[in-house]
Amino acid sequence: MNKINILLVEDEVLVREGLHSLLKKEDFVKEVYQAGSHLEFFEKMAVHPIDLILLDLRLQGSSGLELLAALKKKRTQPKVIAVTGLEGVEVIIHLLKSGVNGIVFKLDGYKEILSAINSVLSSGSYFTEKILKVIQVNAARWDTAPPVMLTFHETELLKSIAAGMTTKEISLQLKMSEATAETYRIRLNKKLGAGNTAALLAFAYRNGLL
To answer: How far apart are CA 97 and CA 159, in angstroms?
Structure first.
C-alpha cells in the first residue's frame, strides 16, 4: 500500500492531537496534517497533497457539511471519512448525500477509524450495518429529509429558543418586532419538521445545531 497524506479536521485540540499521534505510527501514513477551523482546512488543502480527510462535523464558525460542499468544487477530490459524535438520522442522510466515503462515530474508538481508513483505501467506502439500516429505513424520505444547516439568523433564533426566551425577549434580542419573531419561529419549526418547541430542540441537539 502506498503511503498517504491525511488531513485531520477537528476543532477539539485534545482529540485532534490524540488522533494525530496514533495515525503517525501507522505504516501506511506518510504525513498527518491538522486543521482546527475552516480557514485552516482551506490553507492545508491549498498547499499539501491530501489523499484522505478525517472530518468532524462540528467546527467553530462552520460545519463539516459546508466544507464537503466546498470540496465538490475542487479539481482534486480526496476521499473523506466523517468522524462524528452526532447520531441524528437527518445528519447521517445529508452526509451520505454529500458523497462521503465513510462514516465513523467517535464513541466507536480508534480501531473503528482504522478499519474505515483501510476499507476506504482498498474498496472506496466504509458503511457499517447501522449506516446501511439508516439508508434502508429512510429511502422514502431521502430527498425530503429536513436540512441540518441553518442561516446565521436561524441559528441565533434557535439559540434564543433553547435559552427559554419568550417571543418578546427574542424580539428584543434579535431586534425585530414580536410578530416577526413569532413568524420566524413558525418558519423554523416548519423547515425542520418540528411540531413544537420540544421537537425542535430535540432535532437541534441530535443533529448538532446546538
So the answer is: 27
pLDDT tens readout for residues 152-189:
889 999 999 999 999 999 999 999 999 999 999 999 99
* Helices of type H across 36-166: 38-47, 64-71, 89-98, 110-123, 129-137, 152-162
**What distance in Å separates the CA atoms of residue 35 and residue 179, rounded to the nearest whole number?**
42
Beta partners for residue 9, in sequence order: 35, 55
Is residue 161 within 8 Å of residue 125, measured between CB atoms? Answer: no
Supply 107's cell numbers. Answer: 464513541
Domains in the chain (CATH in brackets) are: 4-141 (3.40.50.2300), 152-206 (1.10.10.10)
Identity of the residue numbered 2: N
Tell me if 206 sits within 8 A of 194, measured CB to CB: no
User: Nearest-CA neighbor of 82 among 62, 110, 101?
Assistant: 101
